[in-house]
Amino acid sequence: MTIVDVRTPGEFMGGNVAGSNNIPLQEIQNHKDEIQAMQQPIVLCCASGMRSGQATIYLRSLGVDCENGGSWLDVNGGY
Fold first, then answer.
1. How far is it, in rounded angstroms, from Cα 32 to Cα 59?
2. Which residues pair with 66 in a beta bridge?
3. How far is CA 21 from CA 11, 29, 32, in A?
4. What is the model's pTM?
5. What is the pLDDT along the chain (79 residues), one digit of tens a residue?
6. How many Å apart are CA 76 and CA 69, to the nearest integer?
7. Residue partners of 30: CB distance under 8 A and separation at least 6
8. First-residue to last-residue Cα distance in the chain
């Protein structure tokens, strides 16, 4: 499983899931090939689950096996 945190780099530097990748939501489209090549399933997270939910909808439309993990704090404790 791969974890992608879609928060800003500043938010990511303030705390993150060990081993997670930081690709801010506004850059997801620019990194779609890289994301499609990642080991799947992919769990997306952010601060509250809103941005990761948007990223999940977009990536699923591309055929990526992914899910919205919600807050990075929940992902950190649950995976």
1. 8
2. 42
3. 13, 15, 13
4. 0.95
5. 899 999 999 999 999 999 999 999 999 999 999 999 999 999 999 999 999 999 999 999 999 999 999 999 999 986 6
6. 10
7. none
8. 9
Residue where the block lists tokens 């948007």: 54
Q: Which amino acid is at 7?
A: R
- Look up residue 40 and give its two tokens: 């799947």
Q: Which amino acid is it at 20?
A: S
Check if the beta carbon of residue 21 is closer than 8 Å to that of residue 3: yes
CATH number for the domain spanning 70: value is 3.40.250.10
Residue 39: what residue type?
Q
Query: What is the token pair recorded at 33?
Result: 């090939």
Q: Which domain holds residue 37?
A: 2-78
